[in-house]
Amino acid sequence: MSEKNFYLTTAIDYVNGAPHIGHAYEKIMTDIIAKHYSQRQDNVYFLSGTDEHGIKIQKTAAANGLTPQELCDKNAKSFTDTWELLGIDYNKFIRTSSSEHKKIVQKIFKKLVEKGDIYKHSYTGLYCSGCECFLTSKDLDENGCCLIHGKKPDEVKEENYFFKLTKYKDAIAKHIKENSDFILPQFRANEVLNQLENIEDISVSRAKSSVQWGIDVLDDPEQIIYVWIDALSNYITAIGYDTENPACDFYKNWEADVQVIGKDILKFHAIYWPAILMALDLPLPKHLLAHGWITIDQSKMSKSTGNVIAPKEVLKDYNLETPDAFRYFLSTSAPYGKDGNYSDVEFKEKVNADLANNIGNLLNRTLNMLVKYFDGEIKSEFKAYGDDEISKKAKNIENDAHFMIDALKDKFDMFQITEAAAEIVKFADIVNKFVNDTAPWTLAKEEKTDECAKVLYTVLEAMHYIAVAIYPYCPNIEKDINEQLSLNDSSYKFSDLKWGDLPEGVITEKSKIKPVFLRLDSELATGKKKG
Ligand code: MSP
């Protein structure tokens, strides 16, 4: 029985290029949150998609001899193909060039006009096609170039529609101040409050004479709805706002639980989007999770530097059959909300240390001992605690396992993905220490069979907890661990997880034991990757 609905979204990516590690970072994190909340038995609805309109697409398509729609179709597919490869299990993928989206955006625009929140105004401004927005002096460097894109914006003089953002300024500030967990991490809230101080009404349309690839304003076909109002609306058009048959049954009381976005687009989500929702009398999302940026070898990823990495290349270079190592590394590469870095060396070191050595070896050597000393069999008496020292230590491991699951939930309450993973590694460290301290190989040699059995059994129970805990990050490793423990149901909910669940009888034999994760510098895993 599901407890509650949990609606989460990612930013929708521009399709003027192929997906890179930065896009992947966000989608993987959101997928991890979705999987974690499914483990809590929430009824999760996960939305992702692509942002397809705007001058950049129009220009790139023209330069490539394609229609904008053809370019979008081609590039959107490279995004969905990549997400499939990375095991991103969204419920819906919205494309803003779809007719379902366009129709609803037109209705939203009309509603805002009728409400008196949109008005026409003649305007001269500096437009950055990288940001797809008008810039103010604060967005420019000393040479008059965009701070993010380093390019001079175009001077544009147009008659556009404007949205009365200023009308909602106080209400937004109040909301941010009264809901300290609206913007996460919390350290970003002040940045938004400062931006809010200086906001003006915003342009929400462009003249068709300058941009053609977009959604027509219903009653004024000479105007195209500006990309941000089009893009932000995806979060409600995708689930059927203002339609007879919403895509998911919890639309009626629409409220996103968490919207995952990069720090660069926090302003749009923490100011523009709440204002639009308020104007439509809709509830605001409960949380906005603003993540940092991923650099490559400590440099900003950019086409001109030539350091843009496609996720599928990493999987190919390392001959990785599953995305688990990449998912694990990327999602834990940055502290909460801060920037992270990808480098081949860090990738190899981290996954080797955590997945191969810490977790993988623990399972491997324990199963091997179970086969060697007990013919791979678990007996009911292994499960009982006595008054001896080993039993006391084993009981502590059981307590630590429950503690780890509680700590995970606490971290995920605030979407602290890196910090939650650290709890799993910490627990695996404790279990490794337990094995080293109790030395089951010595106990076997000394014929202390009961104690030896208790140690091995405790470790294998702990492995089951580790498998379930790591599932959101590494779903294939979870499956592999559980299979080797003769636990075949791989979709564990936290409520199903019980100490003592391991089956009795022969759970494994020598030929069935295999590493759940191969070290990346081992022959099998390195593939053609050098060094
Ligand atoms: N289309 C807009 C978002 C509209 S949401 C209604 C956009 N697209 S984007 O393709 O430029 O970026 C999509 C997401 O990827 C954003 O959240 C952005 O922060 C994130 N990233 C893009 N490059 C990134 C890194 N190098 N590292 C981490 N995330 C980055 O903005």
What are its keywords?
531 residues; alpha/beta; Isoleucyl-tRNA Synthetase, Domain 1; seven-stranded parallel β-sheet; four-stranded antiparallel β-sheet; 45% helix; disordered C terminus; binds 5'-O-[(L-methionyl)-sulphamoyl]adenosine
Q: Overall pLDDT, averaged? A: 93
Query: According to CATH, what is the class of the domain at 345-523?
Result: Mainly Alpha
Would you identify the regions where 5 or more consecutive residues have pLDDT less than 50?
A: 527-531
Q: Helices and strands: which structural class?
A: alpha/beta
CATH architecture of the domain at 345-523: Orthogonal Bundle
* End-to-end CA span: 50 Å
Strand content: 15-25%
Q: What sort of overall outline do the alpha carbons produce when their principal axes are compared?
A: elongated
| Quaternary organisation of the protein chains | single chain
Largest sheet: 7 strands, parallel
Number of beta strands: 18
Assign the CATH superfamily of the domain at 345-523.
Answer: Isoleucyl-tRNA Synthetase, Domain 1
Q: Bin the helical content.
A: 40-55%
| Small-molecule binders | 5'-O-[(L-methionyl)-sulphamoyl]adenosine
Task: Itemize the secondary structure elements and their pairings.
Layout lengths: L4 E6 L2 E2 L6 H19 L3 E9 L3 H9 L4 H18 L6 E4 L3 H16 L3 E11 L4 E3 L18 E10 L5 H10 L4 E2 L4 H9 L4 E2 L1 E3 L7 E3 L2 E6 L1 H6 L1 H4 L20 E5 L3 H14 L7 E5 L2 E3 L14 H7 L6 H8 L8 E3 L1 H31 L2 E2 L10 H25 L3 H22 L1 H6 L3 H22 L4 H10 L20 E2 L16 H4 L5
Parallel strand pairs: 1-3, 1-13, 2-3, 3-4, 8-14, 13-14, 15-16
Antiparallel strand pairs: 5-6, 5-7, 7-9, 10-12, 11-12, 17-18
Helix pairs in contact: 2-3, 5-6, 11-12, 12-14, 12-16, 13-14, 13-16, 14-16, 16-17
Bound molecules: 5'-O-[(L-methionyl)-sulphamoyl]adenosine.
